[in-house]
User: Fold these one by one.
Assistant:
Number 1:
Amino acid sequence: DVQLVESGGGVVQPGGSLRLSCAPSGFNFDDYAMFWVRQAPGKGLEWVSLINWDGGRPYYAESVKGRFTISRDNIKNSLFLQMNSLRVEDTALYYCAKGVIVGTTDYYYMDVWGKGTTVTVSS
Amino acid sequence: EIEMTQSPATLSVSPGERATLSCRASQSVSSNLAWYQQKPGQAPRLLIYGASARATGIPARFSGSGSGTEFTLTISSLQSEDFAVYYCQHYNNWPHFGGGTKVEIK
């Protein structure tokens, strides 16, 4: 059974840092791109970051570029999101999701999602 | 950035009735369009990808259509478990979600 389990969320002051982790199981992790997607309380979904299968191509939404860093460890089967210079507007439930590539493009959709980990940025 | 607009924001439907949800892209996304269902307190679930292909395990009452800028998700006969929020998302380059349509019991 394909599963994704996020961890590392918590309460942090503005300007602080957090590192989220995602533990996959039930599939060959190093065959797939991975996403981070967030959902602010009572709001819709926002794509945050994407990393290709070998970690060589990370991509970011404009709202987090320069502050967040996505990475992966294919030996230890883990996905990470290092979040620095956190802002109140980064408060959200953060999901990791497995990416499925579209043919020979660099486009991906998300076919499996974890349950998420909550990040609260507040003074 | 390609913007996605969903309508209506809320759809009130009786069980057993048909529900039609719309999603419009600000420019063509070809068929690079997915639909997700999200129930309260749960993660999103993939329903449709490639604008019209059902994901694994999704019942046949869910169907997607469209290409370019206009897309539709149809639920042919609403079941109690289908009342939820539905999001469209393009993946033509960086992914972007629509604002969602809440399907509620009439």
Number 2:
Amino acid sequence: QVQLQESGPGLVKPSQTLSLTCTVSGGSISSGSYYWSWIRQPAGKGLEWIGRIYTSGSTNYNPSLKSRVTISVDTSKNQFSLKLSSVTAADTAVYYCARDGFPAENWFDPWGQGTLVTVSS
Amino acid sequence: SYVLTQPPSVSVAPGKTARITCGGNNIGSKSVHWYQQKPGQAPVLVIYYDSDRPSGIPERFSGSNSGNTATLTISRVEAGDEADYYCQVWDSSSDVVFGGGTKLTVL
């Protein structure tokens, strides 16, 4: 059974770049026709999709974040990563990674447990 | 951009039926997926393709979708069903869209 685990710094300074990694276990990130997504949730608020990547390197990003987001994949490590540049307090959130069945099965399952990233000086 | 509208809260007594709606323009033409999120936990998929249940999800959870409204129905509600519920669709212009979420309170 596939499991996902986010990792990375819990505190990032304003204007710097947020970097997170999602490690996939229980299966190969390259198996099947799955994409891999990042989703975030500010405290007490709803879910916001950030973007997705396929193991070929093909990406799609949320237009509202596209100018600041880069998602990459390392199939040798069974990992994919998120970089969000020029962060502000508004980027403080729990960040989740999830398997994305795009385009045919366009739901998210499973999800990682999430990691809280706080943007503060 | 495509917008999904959910009621902020729904309350139901134990053993009764809870219905959580998700409104969107012609949402009946899209596939709707639902997630349950308990406090401090990651979301869990409970319904996909409008009405299908992943393995391990109780039959008490069901879904429907028609016109401008999709509905998540939870029958014989239990205290453990208390959570936030989110609907989600894919839209050709907006890509992934989540509803704002509904807090289900079991009285």
